[in-house]
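Anyone up for a design puzzle?
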């Protein structure tokens, strides 16, 4: 009996022991899972270990050691280079070059009316009455520029190419020489082609104000430094009855010339003594400059005169002076021969 009881007691103790062992094992497992479940802690430990090892490996070199690493002569050049770089960095940034460049026409006496010249890239109206010398003024300027190696485009909406070349020859200029060199290009355009193209473009753009005037105008593959357009009046007359289209076209044309890096001379035909200097009166506001050529009546004779009416960004004489169109020479301006008085009606002209 006592043996049986003893066996029972031993058995129950064993059971409790195995139970507690199992509980212990379970608890251990749980804590293990919890540890593994926190990857951040694991990563942090890893990182700390890595940093410790790195610190051990990389030692900050002392100044003395550095001197040993970089030879003395190199240290000197490094110092010098640093000084140069410092000087450059400390320097105030130079302002972008906005100084305008000026161009001369090469027409005798005319350039004397200008202090420095015509700012490069300007759009200038050459305004004047019939026979006042607008075409000759432009042809002569073009020839003078080509002689200096500049590329020039003469766009004629009035006279044919051959007639223009003949004008040049009449004044002892050799257009062929510079045409061959690729410096002069004289091209005739039909103003009605322009108005038709603009109409088509405007219809395509469905009334939008931005149209592409470039394909209507410039010969491809020729980037001129100077453009001469003879004349805006001829273009305007092709737009008769379509004044809105002309206005849109002309605004685009001026914007286009502005974007091109070319100095442009646009001829406009006016009254002999003009009050407005362009077909609509708007062009003279769009233009940077206006040069007026006069063919006024004095007694029973007509005489020529010239004036720089306006020129944005340049100083110039503000007087009307005598000009002559001389056979075999061309235009000659007399900056000292000032014209006084109202020569609109009965002239009251005194020449100094
Ligand atoms: N070979 C020449 N020799 C001398 N003078 C000339 C010669 N050719 C033209 N002229 C003068 O120049 C004037 C015409 O110059 P130009 O053709 O440049 O005038 P324009 O203002 O362009 O005229 P338009 O409005 O008719 O186009 C003539 O009226 C004439 O007096
Ligand atoms: Mg002309």
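Challenge accepted. My sequence:
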């Amino acid at each position: 009996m006592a043996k049986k009881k003893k066996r029972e007691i031993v058995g129950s103790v064993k059971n409790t022991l195995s139970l507690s062992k199992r509980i212990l094992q379970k608890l251990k497992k749980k804590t293990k899972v919890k540890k593994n479940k926190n990857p951040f802690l694991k990563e942090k430990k890893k990182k700390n270990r890595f940093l410790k090892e790195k610190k051990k490996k990389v030692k900050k070199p002392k100044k003395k050691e550095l001197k040993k690493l970089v030879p003395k002569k190199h240290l000197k050049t490094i110092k010098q280079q640093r000084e140069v770089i410092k000087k450059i960095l400390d320097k105030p940034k130079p302002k972008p070059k906005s100084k305008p460049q000026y161009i001369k026409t090469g027409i005798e006496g005319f350039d004397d009316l200008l202090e420095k010249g015509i700012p490069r890239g300007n759009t200038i109206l050459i305004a004047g009455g019939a026979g006042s010398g607008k075409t000759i003024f432009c042809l002569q300027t073009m020839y003078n520029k080509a002689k200096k190696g500049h590329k020039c485009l003469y766009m004629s909406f009035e006279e044919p190419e051959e007639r223009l070349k003949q004008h040049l020859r009449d004044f002892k200029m050799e257009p062929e020489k510079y045409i061959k060199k690729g410096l002069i290009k004289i091209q005739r355009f039909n103003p009605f082609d322009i108005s038709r193209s603009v109409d088509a473009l405007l219809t395509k753009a469905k009334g939008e104000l931005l149209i592409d005037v470039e394909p209507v105008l410039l010969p491809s593959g020729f980037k001129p430094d100077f453009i001469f357009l003879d004349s805006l009046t001829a273009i305007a007359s092709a737009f008769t009855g379509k004044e809105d289209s002309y206005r849109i076209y002309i605004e685009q044309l001026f914007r286009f010339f502005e974007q091109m890096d070319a100095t442009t001379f646009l001829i406009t035909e006016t009254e002999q003594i003009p009050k407005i200097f362009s077909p609509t009166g708007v062009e003279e506001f769009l233009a940077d400059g206006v040069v007026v050529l006069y063919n006024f009546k004095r007694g029973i004779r007509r005489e020529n005169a010239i004036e720089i009416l306006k020129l944005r960004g340049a100083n110039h004489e503000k007087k009307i002076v005598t000009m002559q169109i001389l056979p075999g020479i061309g235009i000659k301006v007399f900056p000292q021969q000032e014209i006084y008085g109202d020569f609109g009606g009965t002239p009251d002209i005194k020449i100094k």
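A detail worth pointing out: The chain has twelve helices and eleven strands.
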